[in-house]
Amino acid sequence: MLVARGPGSPRRAWLRALNIALTLVLAVFWWNLYRPQLVGGPAAYAMVSGRSMESTLEDGDLVITREHDSYHVGEIIAYQVPAADPHAGLRVVHRIVGGTAADGYVTRGDHRTSVDPWQPRPDDVIGSVALRIPYAGSVLGVLREPPVFAWFVGSIVLVSLWNLDRRRRSEPVAA
Prior knowledge:
Blueprint: H1 10-33, E1 43-47, E2 62-66, E3 76-80, E4 91-100, E5 104-108, E6 125-133, H2 136-143, H3 146-170
Antiparallel strand pairs: 1-2, 2-6, 3-4, 3-6, 4-5
């Protein structure tokens, strides 16, 4: 008995439907939990730069933070240096070692002995670290370089065009 496994087979249609369903489930999951704050979501993305959080976070890691109503001692947070400081706008990923929401949090890197000179308040906190992706920040840093980004996008376009041409050639010609 021959089983049809060509482009129009029921098995292939079922796999395509399963693929679409899984993609939709993942998209809804991402939208609800890891959508960037830029588009109204609870998450922010930051690349770890430096050694101040070793061995918890390494240089080049990508961290995803999530907003919360409150933060506590021991939590790793990402915050922006307050506007009144000369380093205003600098993003820091360090652990809360003291302080309160009312007075400002005292933070310090795990690989440091002194506390940070800033005491971020809840409005300065971007979120607490929810997920760490090792080395992903380094990869994204390389992809942000204009020549590498152009090569990457060009490769995607060329592969897409090649795939489209291949599909067009494999379609039967009507007589």
